[in-house]
Amino acid sequence: MKKLLAMGVIGLFAATANVALANEDAELVVDGQAFVTKLDAPADSPLSEILSGWRFRNDETQELQTDDFENPAMIFAEYGSELWETADGADGKSCADCHGDAAESMKGLRASMPKWHDGKKTLFALEDHINWSREEHQKAKPWKWESQEMLAMTAYIGLQSRGMPVKVKVDGPAADWWKRGEELYYTRVGQLDMSCAHCHENNYGNMIRADHLSQGQINGFPVYRLKWQGMGSIHRRFKGCMDNIRATPFKRGSDEFTALELYLASRGEGLSVETPALRN
Amino acid sequence: MEMTRRDMFALAAGLAAVGLIQMPANASEDAVEAAIKKFAGGMPETGGVEIGAPEIAENGNTVPIEVAAAGATSIMVLAAGNPSPGVGTFHFTEMCAESRASTRIRLAGTQDIVAVAKMADGSTKMARREVKVTIGGCGG
Amino acid sequence: MAKIKPRVKVPKKAKAGEAITIKTLISHPMESGQRKDRKTGKLIPRKIINKFVAKYNGTDVFWMDMEPAVAANPYVEFSVKLTESGTMRFEWTDDDGSVYDIEKKISVA
């Protein structure tokens, strides 16, 4: 029985057949700005090359991200820019009141998340950071992880790092989180008994049924997904993956997902931040 | 006699086999024809209309399409395999540089897109183009 | 999206008679009326943008009738040729009767 199941899993993957795939040499350029979507992996990486999810999409999907007007994610970033200027909470302050111009104060933040937070003594995803600041500085109610406001704000803050290389701190107090993330990445879960690695390390570039498997890089999040017809967070995508392999997903904002996010960010170091990207 | 679900299926399959009922693949073809006739006043000849669309759409929820027909005052777009075939109608005036427009549409699965153009002189033309829609896997 | 926001890309300047591309997008869920609420199991009522129109100096230039098969956050692209300077007005009509609009000035030489 075990053997049959294992064969079933192998049978899920197929070499690329009659499918219109991305032009592998395509380079992502948005309004004259070039992005790193492919680079050689460092010696200690489990990957030989690091590839942005953009490279795995077909021509039409790729194109939607090359024009900031045609990329529907940008309307969410624009909404984020309005929220940035809008006073909220008991103290009646806006983000801009303390942080000024996001183009300066938020530059590089997305590229370095998740990050250890000294005050709270925990690993912060960007969403945690935003909610901490809302409670601490604005005396405002935290936003829900997947709310339109949170997605708009993470898209807008992320946009300020667009084009910068992903670089996360994985030593010091973050080291245990990174280790936990790595462990989760290679742990088989769910009825299909698969780990992240089965699809995204051993089989990227292959088809799983009708879908072209990527490396599961997170450098474009939050992303506008054609499937969602809207924006979604990194943790929403993790949850989708776990649902697909018939596992009980962790919660958005859980320690597990934040640890996994740190580990994945480290696997994608050197890729340009593409936030807010567009995927299928 | 009580009909079980299985009996119903067997009966339906049997009737389909002898051509008494049409299977769902063609269920909306009548609706498509009706929509074309209502718009064009009859069945237009094929040709003179361009449909731009991905050969394979990565997700049916958002499929970019473009239609064009030189001299058209309006172009109606139908998705022949959707539960309801209507998508939309573009209207052009003399201030348009071309009778050409793009939008993004929802396709319930692999199917034909139909575009019907109405010209200034009242004549009509149409085109059909298949778009395969990725279903299954993690993107679908 | 908490807010329904129109967005258009129109050149500020154009030569008389030259073809210019207009791109438009509005954040809107285009609720088809065929989707069920996951919690209640009930159909979510239809609420779509059913008409989009572009007017130049008060005259209709281009319009589109929309059905629920138009994807969320509807995108429409078309091209125009203008002979005089003026204002392009874009209007999106919602099923609930609301009209969202935005205007852009174009200088034609």
Can you tell me about this structure?
The complex is a heterotrimer of chains A (280), B (140) and C (109). Chain A is an alpha+beta fold and 280 residues long. Chain A is built from eleven helices and twelve strands. In chain A, the strands form five sheets. Chain A has a three-stranded antiparallel β-sheet with strand order 1-8-9. Chain A has a three-stranded mixed β-sheet with strand order 11-10-12. In chain A, strands 2-3 form a two-stranded antiparallel ribbon. In chain A, β6 and β7 form a beta hairpin. In chain A, α3 crosses α7 and α8 crosses α11. The longest helix of chain A has 13 residues. The radius of gyration of chain A is 19 Å and the shape is globular. Chain B is an alpha+beta fold. Chain C is mostly beta strands. Chain C is built from no helices and eight strands. In chain C, the strands form two sheets. Chain C has a five-stranded mixed β-sheet with strand order 2-8-7-4-5, with no helix packed on it. Chain C has a three-stranded antiparallel β-sheet with strand order 1-3-6, with no helix packed on it. In chain C, β4 and β5 form a beta hairpin. At the B-C interface, β4, β6 and β7 of B face β5 and β6 of C.
Topology, pairings included?
The complex is a heterotrimer of chains A (280), B (140) and C (109).
Chain A: H1 2-12, E1 13-14, E2 29-30, E3 33-34, E4 38-40, E5 49-51, H2 59-64, H3 73-85, H4 95-99, H5 102-105, E6 115-117, E7 122-124, H6 126-138, H7 148-159, H8 175-186, H9 196-200, E8 207-208, E9 211-212, E10 223-225, E11 230-232, H10 234-244, H11 255-267, E12 278-279
Parallel strand pairs in A: 10-12
Antiparallel strand pairs in A: 1-8, 2-3, 4-5, 6-7, 8-9, 10-11
Chain B: H1 5-17, H2 29-40, E1 45-46, E2 50-52, E3 56-57, E4 63-68, E5 72-79, E6 86-92, E7 96-105, E8 111-119, E9 124-133
Chain C: E1 6-9, E2 13-14, E3 19-26, E4 49-56, E5 59-66, E6 75-81, E7 86-94, E8 99-108
What key attributes describe this structure?
heterotrimer; B: 140 residues; alpha+beta; Immunoglobulin-like; C: 109 residues; three-stranded antiparallel β-sheet; 8 strands
What is the tally of helical segments of chain A? 11
Distance between the termini of chain B: 42 Å
Strand residue percentage of chain B = 35-45%
Q: Give the overall pLDDT of chain A as a whole number.
A: 91
Sketch the major β-sheet of chain A.
3 strands, antiparallel
CATH topology of chain B: Immunoglobulin-like
What sequence of helices (H) and strands (E) makes up the elements of chain B? Answer: HHEEEEEEEEE
* Secondary structure tally, helices of chain B: 2
Biggest sheet, spatial arrangement of strands of chain A: 1-8-9
Number of beta-strand segments of chain A: 12
Task: Tell me the quaternary state.
Answer: heterotrimer
Report the CATH C-level class of chain B: Mainly Beta
Biggest contact? B-C, 29 and 28 residues
What's the number of domains of chain B? Answer: 1
The assigned CATH architecture of chain B is Sandwich
Backbone CA Rg of chain A: 19 Å
* 3D shape of chain A: globular
Question: What is the number of strand segments of chain B?
Answer: 9
